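User: Can you recover a sequence for this backbone? Please restate the input before giving your answer.

Assistant: Of course. Working from this structure:
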């Protein structure tokens, strides 16, 4: 994917300036992409901080609208960045920042999670960590002020989310919580840190933990009593959130009906494979059979991490140069056990200079100690190669054509997660899921993604339940997901809370896959016998992260 250098244009300069602005306003963005200049600070989550961000958004949008694109690369940047900036202004007008609280992707998690990506190999790195720890109380106070402002305007999150995030904050605030554990083992390449620095780290960890305790107290005593009783956000907010996560506008009612049909198709495919595993067996019986197979089981997170790494390394080695372009810079993917126990599996991209590799993170819930390889094989392909790591890493490699925003910050969940689900099916076609057990595991994930299209749209739009027994509720969501996934209670609980508090995100995976497959099929139809699937992938991934409407225009126009 490496390419010749392209002379930067006025549009590129605006996009680069926007990245600089984002890093200045939210230093966590800089940490994410490997810029350490502001690693001693955190974002201003107060109402005043938000207004500064919105003012910068308006200024950048005005400059972008006045710029004249000189080529196709510029036209994509103008379309995609312009759409993102306009959507951010719409979200501001809707007051979404005033109710920005959920179990997975709100400032309550962002403030803590940024420490996961910070270098820890030198005393200087720990000095920056110490300074950032000292900034946690102010960041939390600003966030509380914003939520209080929402209360005064009657814009509040759902009560269920408030309770769950309060519980997360209580865990972080414990004397043996994240901050104490993180700093308690601090060293630089195994060597002890200076005593003064160690003392400052301890004080910073204590202050950060105390701040999370204050957040929990605010949530429990002030916000929960006035929080929303209903989980649903309604059609207007949901449509806005759906556009944010897809970078495309879809017919929500048609998508709900498609989701029901897709779920039925996944169930039928699972049932057929269950019969291959144990003739005459139901899906549940086939799963029970596989769960009882000791050869497919891992014990403990150390074994899980080793298996993840070995599986990823093998896929990269075998696919590089045969099915996909995998540049040397991204042939390393680090598989990590996350330092939290909240649930979820996620990917973080490489830094722009590749000094930090792309990483796959697994946040294992407390009490979960056994893992089944047949369930998780496709997860490694989803997060690694040819999934997120190939997609995001190749955009970073493509420095000669793409500005920093296009390489590292552009794109949507629908684009990235849709590609990752698309990649799972690719691996099936390439023979990596020939074992019926592994195919059943892949379909288990695909069935879950189809189920949450139905669940997410159903709950938030108040649709009729698929079984005809009334209107969707948050309570029914737990029952419905439990019927359609093979997860323990902890995973189901976390997943449903995520969907209820982060509307529009969960369906973006399966809807994104649908759009990726539609685009591939349309390009194949147009090109006929000359269609080359490898070239299609090369062209599509060469664009970097984009919204799905932008992807459609780029591939079909």
């Amino acid at each position: 994917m490496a390419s010749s250098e392209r002379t930067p244009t006025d549009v590129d300069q605006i996009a680069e300036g926007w990245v600089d602005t984002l890093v200045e306003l939210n230093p966590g963005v800089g940490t994410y992409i490997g810029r350490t200049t502001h690693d001693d600070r955190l974002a201003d989550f107060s109402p005043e901080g938000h207004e500064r961000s919105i003012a910068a958004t308006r200024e950048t949008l005005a400059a972008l609208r006045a710029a004249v694109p000189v080529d196709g690369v510029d036209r994509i940047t103008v379309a995609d960045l312009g759409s993102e900036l306009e959507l951010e202004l719409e979200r501001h007008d809707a007051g979404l920042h005033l109710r920005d609280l959920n179990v997975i992707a709100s400032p309550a998690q962002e403030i803590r999670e940024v420490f996961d990506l910070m270098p820890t190999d030198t005393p200087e790195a720990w000095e920056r960590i110490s300074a950032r720890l000292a900034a946690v109380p102010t960041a939390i106070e600003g966030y509380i002020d914003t939520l209080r402002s929402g209360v005064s305007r009657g814009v509040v999150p759902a009560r269920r989310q408030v309770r769950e995030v309060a519980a997360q904050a209580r865990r972080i605030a414990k004397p043996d919580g994240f901050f104490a554990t993180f700093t308690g083992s601090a060293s630089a390449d195994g060597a002890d840190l200076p005593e003064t620095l160690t003392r400052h780290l301890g004080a910073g960890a204590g202050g950060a933990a105390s701040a999370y305790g204050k957040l929990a107290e605010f949530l429990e005593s002030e916000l929960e009593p006035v929080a929303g009783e209903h989980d649903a956000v309604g059609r207007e907010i949901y449509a806005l959130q759906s556009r944010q996560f897809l970078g495309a506008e879809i017919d929500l009612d048609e998508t709900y009906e498609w989701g029901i049909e897709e779920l039925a198709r996944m169930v039928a495919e699972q049932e057929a494979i269950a019969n291959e595993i144990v003739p005459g067996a139901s899906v549940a019986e086939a799963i029970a059979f596989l769960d009882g197979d000791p050869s497919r089981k891992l014990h403990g997170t150390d074994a899980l991490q080793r298996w993840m790494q070995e599986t990823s390394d093998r896929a990269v080695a075998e696919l590089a140069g045969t099915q996909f372009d995998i540049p040397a810079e991204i042939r390393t993917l680090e598989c990590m056990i996350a330092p939290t126990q909240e649930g979820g599996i996620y990917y973080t991209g490489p830094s722009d200079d590749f000094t930090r590799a792309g990483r796959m993170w697994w946040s294992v819930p407390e009490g979960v100690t056994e893992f089944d390889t047949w369930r998780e094989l496709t997860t490694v392909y989803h997060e690694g190669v040819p999934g997120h790591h190939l997609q995001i890493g190749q955009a970073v490699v493509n420095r000669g054509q793409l500005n920093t925003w296009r390489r590292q910050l552009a794109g949507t969940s629908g684009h990235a997660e849709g590609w990752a689900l698309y990649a799972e099916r690719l691996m099936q076609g390439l023979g990596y899921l020939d074992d019926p057990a592994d195919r059943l595991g892949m379909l288990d994930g695909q069935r879950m993604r189809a189920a949450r299209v139905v669940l997410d749209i159903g709950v938030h739009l108040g649709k009729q339940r698929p079984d005809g027994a009334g209107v969707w509720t948050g309570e029914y969501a737990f029952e419905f997901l439990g019927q359609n996934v093979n997860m323990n209670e902890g995973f189901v609980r976390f997943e449903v809370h995520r969907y209820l508090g982060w509307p529009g995100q969960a369906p973006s995976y399966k809807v994104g896959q649908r759009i990726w497959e539609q685009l591939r099929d349309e390009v194949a139809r147009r090109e006929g016998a000359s269609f080359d699937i490898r070239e299609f992938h090369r062209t599509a991934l060469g664009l970097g992260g984009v919204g799905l409407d932008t992807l459609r225009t780029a591939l079909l126009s």
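That completes the design. Strands lie at 297-299, 333-337, 345-348, 358-362, 370-372.
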